[in-house]
Design goal:
The chain starts with a helix and ends with a helix. It is of the alpha/beta class and 577 residues long. It is built from 23 helices and 14 strands.
């Protein structure tokens, strides 16, 4: 509804501006102009798709602002006459603002280009010798100059108060624009030395050499996949060797949680392979199978180990690509068995069981009453149909509807996979349906609260989790039961020993399903008709012992603890290198 309101306001404002200017009706013009600015401000926030479409059909932001300025000129021409000195001053001022905006956009673009061409960027390393300038305020540093366009509000709204006010507004906008452009010049000058590639590499290299990294965590991928590296940062902070994080995509560090580990972003393959200061490391850990891994794999002095970003029954956990690594690290015996059964060329002696240190802190007790909490955590749709395990499209809305309608009431935590909709937009549509259902349920309960809530009682507060917080493992601690798909979420959830249900998206027979996906053996199977959902929610828990046994198979023994086992694996890799 909000999206349609913004679009309607934008579409109607511009013809209304021209009509009110030609009429002329200055007061009405001022009101409509104010509404048009509000619509422009709201458009990218509530209707980005429509804003992008307008740009594609050449009705972009600059043109829309020019139309509003033209309407202001028409209004002044109609009220003061085209021969008025105020009209000429207004015209010069308006065009001057656009000229200044072009200068500002050029300077901001030059600054961003300089910073983006740095051969290496860092975090948690002292590179103060480079004197990297801070980015200017967003208003000044906007490379598109879109924020500068809003300076025209001074002459446009001033036109509603008379020709003199409009001209004075144009003069003030021009002065502010010139001041903003001039303020950018020092930033651009301070950034100029960063174009000296040899100098930048020398300074960063000296800091890395002084740190003497021993272990590298390597990551390349889309920002939506940053969770794959994020989950390993706290673990590497606690091992006995000095670790460094190497990234390949600019800006990726912003998507990783705060850490004490040094980070390097080296986009160029040639720069990476010639960055000899990393050669002091003996072990490189990989969290995903991507093409850019080959650049680090080409460094002969580094022993490579594939960590993955979670143990699951998905094909990604026994990918044939894994045989390029010296070692493959899995959580427990189940990981070893997956590779053995798949026969993808990974030798058994190259597989090492290291546990899942991330799972420390997961509670085996749920919050319980007054409302039991159910976590629905569907996976994404996979790279192709053969890897499609997501219930979101075919079952998701029906699962959430059943949970919302359940009596006694349940609390729902809905946490979709970060890559949801990456391949199939119908997953995005299903996700939006679920969010709308949960929001509607929240609204309904807030409007018709139970009488007990007025005397200090509680009411169901569902939770939709689409960002980093709360973390998946926090969601584990907040729930009593979980419904999910074939993914590493199943294995990780077993650390809680709580009941879980897994969706049978492919409609396989139960025995064949459990045989192919061993992580589901201690869970309830949900077919497309959701026939087992009621028993799962209300029936007796008969699988508690099976979950304890399966936990050891998937995650390894409790003793020694996973961090100790992981640290021992690092030390063994050093002794073997």
């Amino acid at each position: 509804m909000r999206k349609l309101s913004v679009i309607a306001a934008l579409v109607l404002c511009y013809p209304a501006l021209l009509l009110s200017a030609l009429w002329p009706a200055p007061v009405l013009f001022g009101l409509i102009a104010t509404a048009s600015y509000a619509a422009e401000y709201a458009l990218p926030r509530f209707a980005r798709g429509f804003a992008d479409m307008l740009g594609k059909v050449h009705v972009g932001l600059t043109l829309r602002f020019a139309v509003r300025e033209t309407a202001a000129l028409l209004l002044v021409a109609r009220t003061a006459g085209p021969d008025s000195a105020w009209f000429v001053a207004l015209a010069v001022g308006v065009f001057g603002v656009h000229a200044v905006r072009a200068v500002q956009a050029g300077l901001a673009g030059r600054l961003r280009s300089t910073l983006s061409r740095m051969p290496v960027t860092t975090r948690n390393l002292d590179v103060s010798a480079l004197r990297i300038p801070k980015m200017p305020p967003r208003f000044l540093g906007n490379a598109g100059g879109t924020r500068f366009l809003y300076l025209d509000a001074l002459p446009v709204l001033g036109a509603a108060f008379g020709a003199a006010t409009a001209a004075l507004g144009a003069g003030l906008a021009l002065v502010l624009g010139v001041a903003g452009a001039v303020a950018l010049v020092p930033y651009v000058r301070r950034a100029r030395p960063l174009t000296d590639k040899a100098r930048v590499m020398e300074v960063v290299g000296a800091q890395v050499k002084a740190y003497e990294p021993e272990v590298i965590l390597y990551f390349s991928g889309a920002t939506a996949a940053a969770y794959q590296a994020r989950m390993w940062l706290p673990v590497l902070e606690r091992i006995d060797r000095r670790a460094v994080v190497v990234l390949r995509e600019r800006g990726m560090a912003r998507h990783l949680e705060p850490t004490s580990l040094p980070m390097l972003c080296i986009p160029s393959a040639a720069d990476l392979m010639s960055f000899h200061e990393l050669y002091s490391a003996k072990l490189c850990l990989y969290v995903s199978n991507v093409g850019r891994n080959v650049h680090m794999l080409r460094i002969p002095t580094l022993r490579s180990a594939f960590l993955n970003h979670g143990d699951s029954d998905k094909e990604a956990s026994f990918n044939p690509f894994s045989r390029v690594y010296d070692e493959v690290w899995v959580a427990g015996p189940a990981g070893r068995d997956r590779y053995r059964k798949a026969r993808v060329g990974v030798r058994d002696e190259c597989i090492h069981e290291v546990g899942r240190p991330q799972l420390e802190g997961i509670s085996t007790r749920g919050p319980g009453l007054p409302y039991r909490t159910v976590l629905y955590a569907p996976t994404w749709e996979g790279w192709n149909d053969d890897l499609m395990h997501s219930s979101l499209i075919t079952m998701g809305p029906r699962i959430v509807r059943a949970l919302l309608d359940h009596e006694p009431p349940l609390r729902i935590i809905y946490k979709p996979h970060p890559l949801t909709g990456h391949r199939d937009k119908s997953a995005t549509r299903a996700h939006r349906r679920i969010v709308a259902m949960i929001e509607a349920a929240e609204l309904a309960t807030s409007k018709a609260r139970h009488p007990s809530s007025r005397s200090g009682g509680t009411r169901v507060r569902h939770l939709v989790v689409t960002g980093r917080e709360p973390h998946l493992y926090d969601c584990f601690n907040q729930c009593d039961l979980m419904i999910t798909d074939i993914s590493s979420v199943v294995a990780d959830f077993l650390a809680s020993e709580k009941p879980y249900a897994v969706t049978n998206v492919a409609g396989m027979p139960e025995a064949a399903f459990h045989e192919r996906y061993p992580s589901t053996e201690a869970g309830v199977l949900l077919d497309a008709d959701l026939a087992g959902l009621g028993a799962f929610l209300d029936g007796e828990d008969t699988l508690a012992r099976a979950r304890v046994k399966l936990r050891a198979y998937l995650l390894g023994p409790d003793y020694p603890d996973p961090l100790t086992r992981f640290n021992a694996a690092v030390e063994r890799a050093f002794s073997d290198s």
